[in-house]
Amino acid sequence: MVGNRAVVRGQEPITLPTDSEPEPDVAIAQGQRDDYLSNHPYPNNIRLVIEVSNSTLEYDRTVKLSLYAENQIQNYWIVNLAANQLERYSQPYQDTQGNFGYRLREIALPNETVTLPNFPDLSLDLNCVFPGS
């Protein structure tokens, strides 16, 4: 969908300043594939991180969500296979107790279409993600 406007990476590491290199199911990074031959994308390169979750849902909603928010990943999506819905998180923040999370959580249902963050002209029909729901 993004063509040559970004790089879609599947289960490849992203480098976080917290000395972590998670391997999200999908990450959309700015630039071209050649930009990441000698290094992995950093948070400021990431446009969207997507985790596909069923058995890992709780982990993706807690540990990974906090890790991505702490590292200022602006847009984090969870494809929730258990509930056949898309969870969209944005606006990372830190609360007064030092916990990291996202201010906004939106749920999109299988019969809806969503716009990709940073690509206002690109939309995803969730009927294609959750067929037969």
Explain what you see:
This is Uma2 family endonuclease. Keywords: Endonuclease, Hydrolase, Nuclease. Pfam families: Uma2 (PF05685). InterPro entries: Nuclease_put_TT1808, Restrct_endonuc-II-like, Uma2. This protein is 14% helix and 41% strand. The chain has 133 residues and is mainly beta. It has a single domain, classed as Alpha-Beta Complex (tt1808, chain A). The strands form 2 sheets. The chain has a 6-stranded mixed β-sheet with strand order 1-2-3-4-5-6. A two-stranded antiparallel sheet has the order 7-8. The chain starts with 5 loop residues before the first strand and ends with a helix. The mean pLDDT is 94.
List the helices and strands and how they pair.
Layout (H helix, E strand, L loop, with lengths): L5 E5 L15 E5 L15 E8 L3 H14 L4 E6 L4 E10 L5 E9 L4 E4 L2 E7 H4 L4
Parallel strand pairs: 3-4
Antiparallel strand pairs: 1-2, 2-3, 4-5, 5-6, 7-8
Q: What percentage of residues falls in helices of 4 or more residues?
A: 10-25%
Would you tell me the overall average pLDDT?
94
CATH topology: tt1808, chain A
Structural class of the secondary structure composition?
mainly beta
Keywords: Endonuclease, Hydrolase, Nuclease
Pfam families: Uma2
InterPro entries: Nuclease_put_TT1808, Restrct_endonuc-II-like, Uma2
GO molecular function, one term: endonuclease activity
